[in-house]
Amino acid sequence: MSNEQRPVWHKRVTEAISADELAEREALWVPLTEEVRELVSTAILSEVDEHAVALARQHIRAAQEILGTKVDTGSFGMHVNDEGLAWNWGNAATGQKNAVAPPLCQVPIADGVRYEADFGAGYEGPPGCLHGGWIALILDHASGRAAHLEGNGPTFTGTLTIRYLQPTRLGPAVAHAWVETRTANKFVVRCTLSTEDGVTAESEGVFVLARWARKPQED
Ligand SMILES: CCCCCCCCCCCCCCCC(=O)SCCNC(=O)CCNC(=O)[C@H](O)C(C)(C)COP(=O)(O)OP(=O)(O)OC[C@H]1O[C@@H](n2cnc3c(N)ncnc32)[C@H](O)[C@@H]1OP(=O)(O)O
């Protein structure tokens, strides 16, 4: 795919970095992401006094200043190297550098895609339960990933229909997505979200291999 074919919004950064160096970089940043995510949860649940809040804010501002001494602009985008590795660490569902992303862990399975996560206080919607918007994100991402693996290219959500079957309690949850049918550029993907209560939400989505990413004979 040439840069000319790629839309203007598709930020792509080429880096001269080996797979080993990339793994080292990942090992450097992922703990920070986890700590920031934990900070969000602790801030929600904390009951300390005003002096402790003021002190915590000083430390957070100091951390912000340290990290801010060297920053990229805009979004992270898609980074690639010349060995064919690609990493989108700003992704809102699974980005390694994105503390806003839920703590999804992809587990290899033969039939489609499986993500596991333990949802804490930062993901609450109805009291004690996972917010419906997060449920939509998880179903969307797992389904998109399943389509991506089969289609071998960037698949975009065309339509996503969700049925919320019962409240999803905070805590451990599992998403399972699989491609039901496919044509050259279009995938119909089903996904379920389950907790210890059983399936709490299910979706059916149409995912489309972006026109600009198709091989000419596929268009
Ligand atoms: C670490 C390394 C990283 C590597 C990387 C890994 C990433 C791996 C995980 C990714 C996981 C992402 C999961 C989240 C995915 C989003 O969140 S994507 C963001 C939300 N979606 C969007 O922004 C999409 C916006 N819409 C569009 O860009 C375009 O309308 C679309 C959806 C791409 C379709 O446009 P198009 O390519 O021009 O489609 P077109 O050729 O006209 O139609 C092709 C077929 O699709 C059908 N179709 C078109 N639009 C629709 C629609 N909206 N609904 C249903 N069917 C449709 C057509 O009817 C046609 O069907 P057939 O005639 O073939 O039967």
From TrEMBL:
<keyword id="KW-0443">Lipid metabolism</keyword>
<dbReference type="InterPro" id="IPR029069">
    <property type="entry name" value="HotDog_dom_sf"/>
</dbReference>
<keyword id="KW-0809">Transit peptide</keyword>
<keyword id="KW-1003">Cell membrane</keyword>
<dbReference type="InterPro" id="IPR006683">
    <property type="entry name" value="Thioestr_dom"/>
</dbReference>
<protein>
    <recommendedName>
        <fullName>Acyl-coenzyme A thioesterase THEM4</fullName>
        <ecNumber>3.1.2.2</ecNumber>
    </recommendedName>
</protein>
<keyword id="KW-0378">Hydrolase</keyword>
<keyword id="KW-0276">Fatty acid metabolism</keyword>
<feature type="domain" description="Thioesterase">
    <location>
        <begin position="128"/>
        <end position="200"/>
    </location>
</feature>
<comment type="similarity">
    <text>Belongs to the THEM4/THEM5 thioesterase family.</text>
</comment>
<dbReference type="InterPro" id="IPR052365">
    <property type="entry name" value="THEM4/THEM5_acyl-CoA_thioest"/>
</dbReference>
<keyword id="KW-0053">Apoptosis</keyword>
<keyword id="KW-0472">Membrane</keyword>
<keyword id="KW-0966">Cell projection</keyword>
<keyword id="KW-0963">Cytoplasm</keyword>
<dbReference type="Pfam" id="PF03061">
    <property type="entry name" value="4HBT"/>
</dbReference>
